[in-house]
Write a structure and sequence with these properties.
The complex is a heterotrimer. By secondary structure, chain A is α/β, with parallel strands linked by helices. In chain A, about 30% of the residues lie in helices and about 30% in strands. Chain C is built from 14 helices and 11 strands. Classes of the chains: A alpha/beta, B mainly alpha, C alpha+beta. Chains A and C meet through helix 1, helix 2, helix 3 and helix 4 of A and helix 1, helix 10, helix 11 and helix 14 of C.
Chain lengths: ~230, ~140, ~400
């Protein structure tokens, strides 16, 4: 198992009332999984992703990677976890505007002090996501779908165990959405655990497992049953 | 295009300053009974300054990188000459408190140094552009 | 393909390059600071140098000149404006007898026409080798023998001809030594012995060359221009001056101390102005930079949150901010100091003239010292101002705050 999410609960206080954004969620990420979590805005799915990425600390529960709870790690260790163990695809445009495509992709490779040459690996990944021709371009010249591909290539540069994608198709048209989902599916088939949250029902068709999140509670769905969301 | 406009205007202005400056803004010593060294320096710089300004205008007119590179090389040596005239070849008056010595000479030196540096940078820049274009043609 | 690793420095460079206007304005602040710090310190040091050169050259405690010529005498010392004025030789002996006077010597002033090509009028100072105590100490730095007839020692701004001679009033002089630069009127003076200057004046008078009423009317043989006085130790200068005024008529007295002090006071004002101005500018620059960094960092929250998500440690985020500020600071300082040097060094003569004060550039060692200090002070301003932003950006999980807002 790459990452194990165990009984995560996150409480927020709104005024005097507290409410659970994430309520006792457990989830295992295994190689080859393409897990899709569907939920409306405010259902707690983003909070869950932040917790899995170690960006938010839960009120209760553990996220285990390599048998250890990530919330007991130092800043340096948890940064290394984000850098090496997971590949995060943030929502929206997340490329750095002042770096060209290939530099964007190879950036995480060097964030842990790696000095080896990375351009070849970055270009290989760009070929894999189908935008090698754009390697020298700057993000402002790329379309939304192309930017997503850059983010996917970037998430893969350190060969992580799991890819975590936060609404990767939210601002894409139907065809581009299909392309990106196919790409993510192929990443999962290549042996990674892929976890994505979305409110796009179509994504379910690509998933190996699908969940619905509502008021912080995660429920696994049979594929046919999610249509009511 | 940006480079063409910028370099052309830069050398045009610098050339005009070298040509007209010693007669006006940072003038040399007035001619007394006999014209002094600085008078001849100022005269020589009129010619050189006009030449530099014309080269600058030509930089504006020509778009081909190689032609502009040639102009830059020529500007480089014009700059060297504009530097040598007040400092070595003709010089200025001896008294350090005289206008030409305390004002004209340093200004001319700085202006010509600017021309030398700018033309060198422009030349190298154009050389690289030309090389890149040739490289891509080969491909 | 670029094969270099994407280090934080490289990332910072790319960020700066990507936002030329932002980088340019931040750099401009440091540039102005470095320009002012270096320029101010060199300017202030040059004035200090000029003043100490002046102090060293004054020599005499009191100078007696013909009534009403105090300012002309100051002109010789400060600006080298050529003058000629005379009174009777006997005054020297009268002053010598005054109570409290230890030594006296006389000088004879003559100014030339613009003689050779390009030479401006030059002050000729005739010294009396037998009694001279004023110029001897510093002439001795360059020339050890007594000045003979037809020999000449020149100030540093005077340019000799190739055969090491100068011609004044059709008489040729051999130059035996050149004085060091003092930034005072001495630089535009030549020194000869008194008999030489008198024969020169006599021949000029006879030929009617470049002489004015003073020279025409003067009984040159029995004239001197000034009496320079050294007072006895332990006796108040003002008392001696009063004594002289009582016993000798028709003289004006210039006290070197007063002359020196008026400039010294001016200099103190200028120096403290430079100091306060530098400090104020430094604080202002630091404040402006802090503000600019803080604003730009706020606008770049998303960029930093992405870095954090990709696995940058807090320390790395702070490092990125500080590196950017350091690069800007160094570039701004180098350019600022360079511009300052381009303004000050080639135009030092002009600046000195415009200030009307003795202005002597510091030596290479001192200049390098000022350069280093100005550079360091300007360079630290950047990272120091960025610390607040760096700490702030590394403390907050911006991604979370961005996402939770939805």
């Amino acid at each position: 198992m790459a990452i194990a999410v165990k009984n995560i609960t996150k409480e927020y206080k709104r005024g005097k009332r507290s409410f659970k954004a994430v309520d006792d969620v457990s989830l295992g990420l295994h190689p080859g999984d393409f897990i899709v979590i569907i939920g409306k805005s405010g259902s707690g799915k983003s909070t869950l992703l932040n917790i899995i990425a170690g960006l938010t600390y839960p009120t209760d529960g553990r996220v285990e990677a390599d048998e250890s709870n990530i919330f007991t790690l130092t800043d340096k260790q948890i940064s290394r976890y984000r850098n090496q163990t997971i590949g995060y695809i943030p929502q929206g445009h997340s490329t750095l505007a002042d770096l060209n495509v290939v530099d964007n992709v190879r950036l995480p490779f060097h964030l842990n002090g790696e000095k080896r040459i990375s351009a070849d690996k970055a270009e290989e990944l760009l070929t894999r996501v189908g935008i090698h021709a754009l390697a020298k371009n700057f993000p402002k010249h790329l379309s939304g779908g192309e930017l997503k591909r850059v983010a996917i290539a970037r998430a893969l540069i350190n060969d992580p165990e799991a890819i975590i994608a936060d609404e990767p198709t939210s601002d894409l048209d139907k065809q581009t959405t299909a392309e990106v989902l196919t790409l993510l599916r192929s990443v999962a088939e290549g042996g990674k655990a892929v976890l994505m949250v979305t409110h796009d029902l179509d994504a379910v068709k690509y998933a190996t497992r699908s969940f619905v999140m509502e008021s912080g509670v995660l429920t696994e769905q049979k594929k046919e049953a999610v249509l009511y969301v | 295009m940006k480079n063409r406009l910028f370099s052309g205007i830069l050398f045009g202005v610098l050339g005009l300053l070298i040509a007209i400056g010693p007669q006006t803004v940072f003038h040399v010593c007035p001619v007394g009974d006999i014209p002094m060294k600085c008078h001849w320096t100022a005269r020589a710089e009129i010619g050189l300054g006009v030449l530099i300004a014309i080269s600058g205008i030509l930089l504006l007119l020509f778009s081909k990188a190689q032609v502009r590179m040639g102009l830059s090389i020529s500007l480089f040596f014009q700059g060297v000459l504009a530097f040598l005239v007040p400092n070595v070849l003709i010089g200025v008056c001896g008294g350090i408190h005289m206008d030409c010595h305390k004002l004209t000479q340093p200004v001319l030196t700085i202006l010509s140094a600017l021309i030398i540096i700018a033309s060198a940078i422009n030349g190298i820049y154009l050389y690289q552009i030309d090389k890149r274009r040739n490289d891509s043609n080969v491909r | 393909m670029s094969a270099k690793p994407m280090t934080i420095t490289r990332l910072s460079l790319y960020n700066l390059r990507g936002k030329p206007f932002r980088s340019g304005s931040l750099m401009a602040v440091v540039l102005i600071l470095a320009f002012a710090l270096f320029g101010g310190s060199v300017l202030s040091a040059s004035l200090k140098n000029g003043l100490s050169a002046l102090e060293g050259r004054l020599g005499a405690d009191i100078a007696a000149v013909p009534l009403g010529y105090e300012n002309s005498y100051q002109g010789i010392i400060l600006s080298g404006e050529p003058v000629k004025f005379y009174f009777d030789k006997s005054i020297e002996q009268k002053i010598k007898k005054v109570d409290g006077v230890e030594k006296v010597t006389s000088q004879f002033y003559l100014s030339t026409l613009s003689a050779d090509c390009c030479s401006v009028p030059v002050q000729i100072i005739g010294i009396d080798p037998n009694t001279d105590f004023v110029t001897k100490p510093w002439i001795a730095e360059v020339y050890h023998n007594e000045l003979k007839d037809g020999q000449m020692i020149i100030g540093s701004d005077i340019l000799p001809k190739k055969d090491n001679t100068l011609t004044f009033f059709n008489q040729k002089f051999t130059i035996v030594a050149k004085l060091e630069k003092t930034a005072t009127g001495m630089d535009n003076s030549v020194f000869v012995n008194v008999s030489t200057v008198k024969s020169l004046a006599e021949s000029a008078k006879q030929r009617g060359l470049g002489t004015n009423a003073e020279v025409q009317e003067a009984d040159l043989e029995n004239s001197i221009s000034s009496v320079l006085i050294k007072t006895k130790k332990g006796i108040d200068l003002d008392t001696v001056a009063t004594n002289i005024r009582r016993s000798v008529d028709g003289v004006s007295l210039v006290k070197s101390k007063n002359l020196f002090e008026s400039f010294s006071n001016n200099l103190d004002i200028i120096n403290s102005f430079v100091g306060i101005f530098s400090l104020a500018l430094w604080i202002l620059a630091a404040l402006v930079l802090t503000l600019l960094f803080s604003v730009t960092i706020n606008n770049r929250k998303k960029e930093f949150s992405v870095l954090r998500i990709l696995g940058a440690t807090r320390r790395k985020l702070a490092g990125a901010v500080l590196t950017e500020s350091l690069i800007l600071s160094i570039t701004g300082s180098v350019v600022g100091i360079l511009l300052s040097a381009i303004v000050i060094f080639p135009f030092s003569t002009l600046i000195g003239e415009q200030l009307g004060l003795p202005f002597l550039l510091p030596g290479v060692d001192d200049t390098l010292g000022y350069l280093l200090i100005a550079f360091l002070l300007a360079v630290v301003a950047g990272p120091l101002s960025a610390i607040y932003s760096a700490v702030k950006i590394s403390r907050t999980e911006t991604y979370v705050t961005l996402r939770e807002g939805e």
